[in-house]
Specification:
- The complex is a heterodimer of chains A (about 300) and B (about 500).
- Chain A is mainly α.
- Chain A has 13 helices and no strands.
- Chain A has a domain at about 95-260 and about 285-300: MetI-like (MetI-like fold).
- Helices cover about 75% and strands about 0% of the residues of chain A.
- The longest helix of chain A is centred in the middle third of the chain and has 36 residues, at about 90-125.
- Chain B has three domains: about 30-40 and about 185-255 and about 475-495, D-Maltodextrin-Binding Protein, domain 2; about 60-165, Dipeptide-binding Protein, domain 1; about 265-470, Roll (Dipeptide-binding Protein, domain 3), CATH 3.10.105.10.
- Chain B is about 35% helix and about 25% strand.
- Mean pLDDT of chain B is about 90; it is low at about 15-25.
- Chains A and B meet through helix 2, helix 5, helix 7, helix 8 and helix 10 of A and helix 1, helix 5, helix 6 and helix 12 of B.
Chain lengths: ~300, ~500
Amino acid sequence: MGIMLQYLFKRLWHTVFVLIGISMISFFFIHLSGDPVMLMLPGDASTQEIETLREQLGFNDPLYAQYLRFAGNAAQGEFGNSLYYKVPAMALILERLPASLELAAAAMLIALVVAVPIGIVSAVRRGSMVDMGSMLGALFGLSMPHFWLGIMMIMLFSVKLGWLPTSGRGSLAQLVMPSLALGMSLMAMFARLTRSVMLEVLSLDYIRTARSKGLKESVVIYKHALKNAMIPLVTVAGMQFGFLLGGTVIIETVFAWPGVGRLVVQAIFNRDYPLVQATVLVLSVIFVAVNFLVDMLYMYLDPQISYFEDK
Amino acid sequence: MKRWSLLSLVALMAIALAVSPPPATAKDTLVVMQEAEPVGLDLMQSSIQTTMSVCYNIHDTLFHPQEDATVLPALAEKWEKIDDLTWKITLRKDAIFHNGEPVNAAAVKFSYDRINSEDLKSPNKGKLSAFTDLNVIDDHTFTIKTKEPYAPGLYMLGYYLPIVPPKYIQEVGNEKYNTDPVGSGPYRLKKWARGDEIVLEAFDKYYGPKPAYKTVIFKANPEESSRIAAMLTGEADVISGVPVLQRKRLEDSGKAYLTPQMGVMPYMGINTYEAPFNDVRVRQALNYAIDKELINKALFDGKAIICAGPISPRTFGHSPTLKPYPYDPAKARKLLKAAGHPDGIEARLAYPTYMAQIQEQAEAIAANMTKAGFKVTLEPFERAVMWERYKGKKHQLYIYWWDDAPEPDRYMYSLFNSTSRDYYYKNTAVDELLDKGRTVMDRAERAKVYAQIDEMLYQDAPWAFLYVVPEVFGVANDVDYQGRRDGFLNMRYAKPKM
């Protein structure tokens, strides 16, 4: 366990550098991309007013000084008020984060539950009608734009059939369409991935050995092959989950889902520096944490993988 | 294999069971769906349309501004002019705030001082800059003074000076007031679930007519197709932001109707300080170059109103005699030749990418201009960049817009008086007339001043004048609601259709 802790600390240490790097990049990019003061004041504001506000907000200091101040505050968990909403930026994000987590988790669940069995069947019955049919379906799933799919679902399930509410969050019914629309392309990706990985694993020597030992085919597939095939799947799923938290702007827009993605995009348009920086940092932390968990899962899935040199 | 299938089957069944038809809203509840959620609920702290819309349900002002730029009483019961610079205003005695504080002259004074205070940084402060002084006479009477005679005074107070409760604000501060406001309007804030909905409930001690709906829920949905779908399913009773090309669909559905509201007035601004556009002939050539009728038919289903000069044809004070520049590319070429550009002119045309249908408009205009001898480079800019370049005087030609507000001073002064925005155009005669327009108290005389400004600017062509695109609200058939020119969704005026 000591080695494990050591590894954990090493990872944490790396994480700090990653976060500093990300905060710097996001800070400088957003600051160089335009001035929020111009957007905050009405068009006929005098130069005097503009200058006063710039001074008050500290935008007249050199950029590096502004960054140091930001980093110092951020280290204490203080990100300042959103320039636009005039409430603490972190509070805004924390309000939206559960919605994002919920949507990402639901989409991921739907995708995995449907895709993995399809991928396995396609691999086991390679070349069969089932295989071709499901891979064609997967191609469709990958090619359909989220935006279009979302609108079509609303048209069918809400307007035509009246089964589901068009938008918003709160009930389970409101979660169905956004998570399906989001899960659809993931589903396709996972099905294709599962199939190809399974095909590879099934051709390996140890599977042949298992079969020649006279094990039942189902044991060979689920116990021996699947566990190994899970590793790339877990990697991709982990990365995708991190991405889903902030990268679902389109789905959030179509279904008026109050997630983080829309918040940050709007914040970028408004040059709402504190909000953008806080969001980027929060999402990075989650992303890094998910990746860390994925690494831990590897060890469970495949004892041959180790991060400890002196094993 | 079986286990997996079973699992997915169970999951799908669970989802199917959990799914129920959309909840029908009760008849005393009205759901309004806008493009965006408010950024706050303090009317003094925001100048954003979707935010102000919600605010006007909660906050009351002294007057109700009307579409012809006159006012009706609200918190103010009567008013009189003591002299050209002073109004004496009497408040009604039965108005109270949602927390029980009285609406009195001290509250008006507090509100006036608050909007002018440095701390608040109100974006609407400038709109009241003509006022210099507010004096309390007694509990329900006060005087308000202006530097110069100021004709739009009461109208501006009617929009931009919400009366706020002194005691409550001193207790909670500006930041909290922005999320938990207390007003004196017909609705009080019941709940704000950020990102989801704002629930307002009728205030039972409201002094004015009781609103017909007990509960009004404001929701936000940024995607236009989804808003329309919500209207068709009955999840929303009133929606804003109905794009021109989807209007027919909504009308044909048999479930909703459209009601006109504010208009958007796009225009092509010209940098008149730099060659070649410092020559009036070149600017007039631009006006002849654009086929506004065709653009109207192709992009706005013929619903736009073609502008002659800078004052919207729907606005008080526009010149009734002006005819829009006709589309005449030959004449444009002739003018360019006369101005010394027989081979045409190269021009940059900037536009903000976030404006509705802007790409199509910019491309159509550029194509028109090409026929008249201009070689156009389109410059699409993201919102903040566009604005910064605009203020930095970096545009040569640019498309921007204003709403066609009922009161001409509101936008004409901002855009054409060189003491306001001296970015691309300055004309001292226009400056003087705009100053005068504010001070003439007689309505008919005042209209003449603005007509004169309209005509002058028509000739001098600091813009290529385009059109007003009337915006509409979608309203469910069982709701009676007429949109208003200010574009605010003031639900005190909505009632069930009998």
